[in-house]
Amino acid sequence: MGVSLIVVHYRTREPLTRLLESLRAANPRPLREIVIVNNSGEPLGDLTRGAGWPVRVLDPKRNVGYARGVNAGIRASSEEDLLILNPDVTVEPGSVETLERAARERPRAGILAPRLLNPDGTLQLSARRFYNWRTLLLRRAPLFGLDRKSRDVREHLMLDWDHRDTRPVDWVIGAALYVRRGAVRDVGLMDERYFLYFEDVDWCQRMWRHGYEVVYCADATMRHEHARSSAQLDPRSVRAHAAGLLRFAEKWSAVLYVVSGARRRIRQILTLLLDVLAAVVACAAAYGIRALLDPWFDRPVHPIGSYSGLLFFTVGVTVAALLWNGLYRRVTFTDRIERVFLLGQAVIQAGLLLMAATFLFQMPRYSRVLVLLVGPLLFAFLYVSRGLLARLEAGARAQGFAFRRVLLLGSGGEVDRARAALEASREEGYEPLHARVPSSPEETPEAASARIRALIESERVQIVCAVPEPDEVPYLLALASSLRDTGAAVWWAGSVAHLASASGEPRRLGPLEANLLHAPSRGFSLRARKRMSDLLLSFLIAPWRWGRLRAYLASRGESIGPGEAWRQVLAGERSWVGRSRYEADLWTGVPDWARLALEPLRPGVVSPGNGRGADRSGRLESELAYLSRFSLAEDLRIFLRATEGAR
Predict the structure, then answer these.
(1) Structure pTM?
(2) What is the average per-residue pLDDT within 50-66?
(3) Which of 481, 519, 609, 626 could pair with 619 in a Cys bridge, judged by C-beta atoms 3.0 to 4.6 Å apart?
């Protein structure tokens, strides 16, 4: 098995020269090719000639950052194992062979790292325990080495270990990484939102969460100059550190994850507060203008406190007009023209109400001049505040914040294409992950469901998207249905996306054609919502369909009447709309994947596959499809339709 070496070069000509010289001296047998990502854009032909291995130089035309450079190198490389080295690393003889051997001996290892030494031969602390909030603050504050006196920091740096044995560790610095391509396929590439720092700890964290180990290989030794500009407190480096820290916290903090889930609500509240502020400022500015123009008016302007009623009325009318025009459900605009028209329409309505109030209620303190001045000022402040908020949001998204994590399910070419499409359009705010289901031929559907549920929780996944091959449709449909109460939105994409659409027309999930199978509920599980549906039908619908229900049950050969059916539903033994009574034959012949999806449902007095008769596969298909689109309205529609023809 061969190894591709990937090096990201940015103004590191001399260290890169030493790295290539050390490779020629060590002559690692597994090495097959060298891929250099040239972020500097300078000519490197004199360095790569005579390297001893095929060398490809990728020129992205600009400094794209470390993570994006590594990812470009991984995509361009061809070997199954990857060795990612900083240019300021030099390879000791036998180190690459030792890493390759350790990788073969540890099949669960996703990342292996050599023991790094400083140029003077002393140990470099390259293996770390994961950050907690104390070590994060202490390590990233400019304490000039004083942080190492902290017990938390010493434990984080693993100073209680002599680094002489090979062992799994939480994470290793990204200067020298031996990575399995198979692990990259499952875990994903480096997160390109990190420009320079924190991409290594993020990658290791994701490896562990996907079931791979990160292994410190003490028998493989390399030297690292560790000449990071961060050590010199360069302003650009400090900014990169701060940005990486914020992205890492936004990605992995449980608190920020919960906050991120309510981002739409937070954005609406922030918009409301800014609108109130705009109305207050508009009133204050109008009063200031009126005061300046006071010599030209016969009636003097009153003290500002006298207009408090006008202020509160202006704020209330402005918010009401914006609410009436749907400008809190929708807080972004297609372009400036749309923003002008929609905000202008709301402001005109608010202005007319204000002016009408001055006539209808004869309020002496409601100066009509002030009202006339408030209108254009209010529009200007609303236009500016909404524009600033949109730019702030777009800027945060461009910097890699507020991403939504998409877990792609599938195992064929469809899911690979979906992942490539999401990777290529990260600016739309999606971060793709991938999980193979089943992970092995022996994995049962129940085990696959439990594994994916754990992954959704640990990776803080907001969106699950099943991307099946045609022969995976029933399995993935059932699996996706079993994930409905995880709190993640469940989508269905790929060439068969239309199969999950009632209209046959797929919608879009970023660049993908997809259909939304299930939107996250507001805290109610599927079973709870089914129970609510049953109770509503029991008390509001079934009593008015009593005769038709009796005829329906008789036509189905049921031995019970509507009263007993009503009792069974009220007792929770059945649902008004549910699956067929598979218990009668103990699920004989029903595939495991279908049971997995249908078992949470109670048997129904009416079933979605009612018209399928003895066609067992037809009933299964229609009941699985019903599960994917369940709603209270859907239950009502099925119940009324089933009992409509029975008399």
Answers:
(1) 0.60
(2) 87
(3) 609
